[in-house]
Write a structure and sequence with these properties.
By secondary structure, the protein is of the alpha/beta class. The strands form 6 sheets. The protein has a 4-stranded mixed sheet. A 4-stranded mixed sheet has the order 2-15-17-16, covered by helices on one side. The structure holds ligand EPZ.
Length: 421
């Protein structure tokens, strides 16, 4: 188990090349199960979650090789239709393989994903949507077993809750169903729009891409394609907040500013100076931030995946602010760890009330989930003295070379191997 040792107090200054989106790649890779052939997915980030997905694909018979962000996928031969618990328990996005497998082969057996650090995270919408397409779904010993007599049939399906994963899963299945499907209240996160664009390149017929209503005309077969993963908007937001917290300046490269409109506007509200062009974002902060409340929402609102980082940011504000998560009610495992650094935060229902301006000092803190770990790193950057962040395998799931990127910006951060838990 690795840990980071961080010396606080350094301003961040410089530029960072943003990697491909974790949640983008995790949606594109399962899509290759829909059509036999060779695929190249460029701008794929070198992350634990991507490796977990490629190992799951390997278990299904698909050969994957990642070299310098080029992901080569040989999906000519699928040798099994079972996604085992050993893979799915590591990463919920593994559940994405259900839709493509049952659409193409008429059957699939996928382990139910485990829980997360912050809650049950059900998959009922994935299951309901694929059932509506005509699959018969049973649960057996922790596995979802989907079977369809003949081809899936197009359908009308409304997502009761806007769900990124369920939209991706059902959309992929609908592309090979017979007839038309109308999916409403779809997620419109950029990663889903990018998936729909890749499916269209593969020959799928999808109208309404980028909107909450997707109309899919099923086709008999799809073709393999090459695709590029979109930039990681959550990684980008994390570095913008890191620079703002340390009153430094940063230039992000290889980023899509238009995926971050709501975040950029919030950062400007705190007093940051921000300039953007087509693939760059420049941020400068000369003073501590004004306290600014945050309320997460589905895209294009503020992503839940930055609420932990924003909470850390508001520790440096002169005043009180409130961070409300309307997507996940209890995604606050990082708060007790931030309090160990001297933070003053109260949790009321699904909100964190932050009393900014407290002096933070280094301590040993424990990561418990991906974005929560990022908030601990950010807080350590502005804490006096040394902070040790344990269990950083959580971070390695979603941040590509974070310590190198932070070091290049002037942070004092070292990775240490530990046998401690
Ligand atoms: C995706 O998870 C992301 N993961 C998450 O990012 C992100 O936090 C989340 O979307 C919300 O934006 C990937 O893309 C791999 P959801 P997903 O289905 O698809 C409820 C990160 O840090 N729901 O959009 O699992 C659910 O409980 C990760 O990178 C159901 O009720 O999220 C939640 O309240 C963490 N039933 C809401 O919908 C379902 O069947 C949104 O969840 C599915 C979801």
């Amino acid at each position: 188990m690795d840990k980071f040792v961080i010396e606080g107090g350094k301003k961040l200054k410089g530029s960072v090349k943003i990697a491909g989106a974790k949640n983008g790649a995790l949606a594109l890779i399962p899509a290759t199960l829909l059509a036999p052939g060779i695929y190249n997915i460029s701008n794929t980030p070198d992350l634990k979650d991507v490796w977990t997905m490629t190992r799951l694909m390997g278990a299904l018979g698909v050969f994957c090789e990642l070299n310098n962000s080029e992901l080569f996928i040989d999906a000519r031969e699928i040798t099994q239709l079972v996604a085992p618990y050993e893979h799915v328990k590591k990463m919920r996005a593994s559940f994405y393989v259900l839709g493509p497998l049952v659409a193409r082969y008429g059957e699939a057996k996928v382990s139910l994903p485990g829980g997360c650090a912050w809650g049950p995270r059900p998959v009922d919408l994935h299951i309901k949507g694929i059932e509506k397409l005509g699959a018969e779904i049973t649960l057996d010993q922790g596995y979802v077993i989907a079977k369809s007599k003949g081809r899936l049939q197009g359908c009308k399906f409304h997502f009761d809750i806007s769900s990124v994963g369920a939209t991706g899963n059902v959309l992929m299945a609908a592309t090979l169903a017979k007839g038309t499907s109308v999916l409403t209240n779809c997620a419109i996160e950029p990663e889903i729009t990018a998936l729909a664009k890749m499916l269209t390149k593969m020959g799928a017929k999808i109208d309404g891409i980028g909107t909450t209503e997707l109309i899919i005309e099923g086709v008999d077969e799809l073709q393999p394609v090459n695709e590029e993963t979109i930039p990681d908007r959550i990684e980008a937001a994390t570095y913008l907040i890191a620079a703002a917290m340390t009153m430094g300046e940063i230039q992000l490269e290889n980023v899509n500013p238009y995926h971050l409109t709501s975040v950029i506007s919030k950062l400007e509200e705190t007093g940051c100076e921000i300039d953007i062009n087509s693939n760059k974002i420049f941020l400068r902060a000369d003073a501590p931030p004004k306290p600014v409340d945050l309320v997460t929402a589905v895209y294009p609102g503020i992503p839940t995946d930055i609420q932990a980082q924003w909470t850390a940011y508001m520790l440096t504000a002169e005043g009180t602010s409130k961070v409300t998560d309307n997507i996940y009610q209890d995604r606050f495992k990082h708060v007790p760890e931030l309090i160990r650094l001297g933070a003053k935060i109260d949790i009321v229902d699904n909100a964190a009330i932050i009393t900014g301006g407290e002096k933070l000092s280094g301590a040993t803190v424990m990561s418990s989930d991906l974005r929560g770990s990022a908030s601990l790193i950010l807080a350590a950057l502005v804490s006096k003295g040394t902070t040790e962040v344990l269990r950083i395998y959580h971070l390695d799931r979603g941040y590509d070379n974070i310590e190198q990127k932070l070091k290049k910006l002037g942070a004092v951060i070292e990775r240490h191997q530990t046998e401690l838990v």
